[in-house]
Amino acid sequence: MPSEDFAAGGRRQKKQQHHHNQLQIREVWADNVDREFKLIRAAIEHFPYVSMDTEFPGVIHRPAKHPAAMTPAERYALIKANVDALHLIQVGLTFAASPSAPPALAFQVNLREFDPRLHRHAPDSVALLAASGVDLAAHRARGVSARAFAALLMSSGLVCNPEVAWVTFHSAYDFAYLVKLLMGRKLPRSLPEFLKYVRVYFGPEVYDIKHMMRFCGLFGGLERVAGALQVQRAAGRCHQAASDSVLTWDTFRQMKSLYFAKEGSLQLCAGVLFGLELQEDAKLLAPTSCALR
Known about the structure:
Layout: H1 4-18, E1 25-28, H2 33-44, E2 49-55, H3 72-85, E3 90-96, E4 105-110, H4 123-131, H5 136-142, H6 146-156, E5 165-168, H7 172-183, H8 191-202, E6 206-208, H9 209-212, H10 222-228, H11 241-259, H12 279-285
Parallel strand pairs: 1-4, 2-5, 5-6
Antiparallel strand pairs: 2-3, 3-4
């Protein structure tokens, strides 16, 4: 049964569905992470659709050729080089009841490991995060440890749960950081093995809006696509993970309404990460349980 906090939150969210701009992002720090994950565990049963975004300190390894000319394996090798070398800063999670429902809850998990004085990063990316309101000093002082976050994710019902559907935007880096965190070590060497872990942890219903756009005649980044669909940012600021996860969700449900209204059409996009389109190989290799940890 949901906790009393969740029941109260549920009542508030019913009201927020009528006044979307009142959606409040719940900030998650070390001192409240256990309480917030209790709420997440209770929420999953009622809100099994989760949109996810991450913030990280840019990229330090650049491609030797234009990304459009790279193979999926080459793209993955570049992602692996960056993710293995860098630290995750934020994870945003937004929960909804169905593909057409408004967001019900949004969480921003603030992690502690990254220190720009010690760790490699792209200075322009870190400056952009700071200008967008990400307080890295607060992250170092009060943030959740990556190890604690991984343990809570594994026990939350969010991962290794085929009933949960995930929605993302251009998500290869997002999933790479979470797979690295959940594994507790560097990413797998090969793309098929990485996709195997994505499927084990996140299940068959993973929707990458960047891939879905190919069927809709839409182009550009999240802000541009949201604007083209007349979707407004409902909470928070851009370049913060929770706010971007809310915008990702609202963009997804507008796309579904306009382009994937026919029953079953959305399933054609499931399981594909934009730029890493070897999903059939991953399905063939995927185990049926979460025994990879």
